Structures are given as C-alpha cells and as structure tokens.
C-alpha cells in the first residue's frame, strides 16, 4: 500500500500542569521528536495562551508537528505528519513523549493518508500507561 503520508496522533493524559505550561520546554520536546524521526526543522512557532496552555507548531522537511496543551486538564495533543513515508513502531514516539511530559498514559492512532482505503487497514490504534516503576 502506497500511502501519500502518515499522520501520527498522540493524546497524553495526566501530565503535570507545570510541565504542560512551560513553552520553552514543550518546544524543546517537539524539536527532540523532529530529531528522532530525522526531520529538519524549517520553521518554529511557539505561543503561550492565557491563562494557560501552549501551542507549538514546527514546519519540518516534508512534514509538520504540532503540540497543543491543556495544563488545567493534564492533557496534551500531538500530531505528526510524515509525507511519503509510513510510521515505524520502533520509533516509540508516544512512549518517549509520555516520559518527557511526565504523563501517566497515552493513546495513539496512526492514519495512512491518500490510500483510498477506509476501515481498520487505514487506522491503527495503540495505548499505554506508566506503571508504578516508571515503565510502559
């Protein structure tokens, strides 16, 4: 199956408000994700919301990454789009984000774009949580 791209959607839950409201830290984590997938950051935009919350958008070589946080709810939404390539599970981005943002659990979906398919073959869902010893 030749997908035009892959959209990785990650929801992170129960993260500390202080972490999710730290704009420079969130941007740094976003840049870390970009490096992990081998993408060059072409442009970065970081905006702190009032009274709280952060939006980071990175334009990447052949893709983009966005992070939106709701500190009051301990929630962060991360979207990463790869043009012309499929997501490789061994990158473990959701687990890395869960650890870096100190979230208790995550859910991720991988959507293949431009395949003219629908249903289970076009969407893969996974989830995980932190155990008491800090593993997933």
From TrEMBL:
One of its GO terms (biological process) is spermidine biosynthetic process. Gene3D superfamilies: S-adenosylmethionine decarboxylase. Keywords: Autocatalytic cleavage, Decarboxylase, Lyase, Polyamine biosynthesis, Pyruvate, Schiff base, Spermidine biosynthesis, Zymogen. The keyword Lyase applies. Its cofactor is pyruvate. It comes from the Bacteria. One of its GO terms (molecular function) is adenosylmethionine decarboxylase activity. InterPro entries: AdoMetDC_fam_prok, S-AdoMet_deCO2ase_core, S-AdoMet_deCOase_pro-enz. GO terms for cellular component: cytosol. The keyword Lyase applies. This is S-adenosylmethionine decarboxylase proenzyme.
